[in-house]
Design brief:
4 strands; alpha+beta; globular; four-stranded antiparallel sheet; about 35% helix
Length: about 90
């Protein structure tokens, strides 16, 4: 299953490391990353993929919640199919 993650918060060191480590621990492969700073605010969008036979998106969301809290950022994870459905003609 493919997922889209959004990460936002005040910029500080270690955000990318914390999020990517948390995803690796959940066996999520990062496919694409876009990140930028907007006047001191860190924003990142990631596309990831994981095997649905091993876990659910809800389990990954739950596992990443404390990662976001520890890194002092908001981490939101959604199925990529939601984005595809929103933009279907």
């Amino acid at each position: 299953m493919k997922i889209i993650l959004t990460v936002t918060g005040l910029d500080h060191e270690g955000i990318i490391a914390a999020v990517s480590t948390g995803l690796a621990e959940q066996h999520v492969n990062i496919l694409n990353v876009s990140q930028t700073l907007m006047e001191g605010y860190f924003t990142m969008i990631m596309q990831g993929e994981f095997g649905e036979d091993a876990q659910t998106i809800e389990e990954i969301q739950a596992a990443m919640k404390p990662v976001g809290e520890a890194a002092r950022v908001s981490v939101r994870i959604q199925s990529e199919s939601i984005f595809q459905a929103m933009h279907a003609l």
